[in-house]
């Protein structure tokens, strides 16, 4: 049986200053490592504010090479602290081709690879199709020193197909770096239901696949109403759920927090023996799911 491992989630507030955010994240990584975390994840696009609230070509200047300067610095930190890191970055692949990307660094500082966000939203204040090319690397897993991990990014978390494929690839835990929150005008009426749906979806991924899940969300308000940007209030609530869907630890919605949670692969083994969803899949009958719509 695989060894137990400990994960850390960094729930942070961000500013428009990339260097400030990186320094802040490094301090939180050090805290998580000191508390025993072995695999530590940032939230989505942690080096800046969630810039997709508007469509502005100048914001492409925020993108960087992956691997590149940030991964080099984080790789040095990973080696120093003997931890693996999951870092969400705005990737510049080429002029006109940009991705919403997660880099994975192992405990020796090596760059294990990257995952590019597969599902790209386009909603009010989430104008990601303007910025990001859909991922083309598939649903990947990475063998860190401590565990085999999978990664999904924010909007990916609403799609059971991606989480299932990642779990079938052997992930012991799936990280979901996220930037999700309330539209200020909607919070009073819909806020509680939106948050509940988000939590329920993640717990469903854990249950359906018999795997640990770890959504890590940013927190705080970002916006500029004076310039027509009503902003978003990111709801935090980063958490870890076990393969039975039980929430082991959860952050709040109003402050920065570092969660550190132990994961036991034996829990997946036991859950899958008693709820053998993977055994009973009818893979011979799932061809229609590859169609956009079946009704016509």
Q: Treating each run of at least 4 consecutive H or I residues as one helix, how many helices? A: 5
Q: For the record, what is the CATH homologous superfamily label? A: Carbon-nitrogen hydrolase
CATH class: Alpha Beta
Spans of 5+ residues with little confidence (pLDDT < 50)?
Answer: none
What strand line-up does the widest sheet have? 5-4-3-2-1-15
CATH topology: Nitrilase/N-carbamoyl-D-aminoacid amidohydrolase
How much strand content do the residues show?
25-35%
- State the shape: globular
Report the end-to-end length measured between terminal Cα atoms: 48 Å
Mean pLDDT: 97
Task: Give the SSE order as H and E letters.
Answer: EHEHEEEEEHEEHEEEEEEH
CATH architecture: 4-Layer Sandwich
Write out key terms for the chains shown.
15 strands; four-stranded mixed beta sheet; Nitrilase/N-carbamoyl-D-aminoacid amidohydrolase; globular; single chain; 296 residues; six-stranded mixed beta sheet; 28% strand
Molecular structure report:
This protein has 296 residues and is an alpha/beta fold. It has one domain (5-290): Carbon-nitrogen hydrolase (Nitrilase/N-carbamoyl-D-aminoacid amidohydrolase). Helices cover 24% and strands 28% of the residues. The strands form four sheets. A six-stranded mixed beta sheet has the order 5-4-3-2-1-15. Strands 6-7-8-10 form a four-stranded mixed beta sheet, covered by helices on one side. Strands 9-12-11 form a three-stranded antiparallel beta sheet. Helix 1 (18-34) runs parallel beside helix 2 (69-81). The N and C termini lie far apart (48 Å).
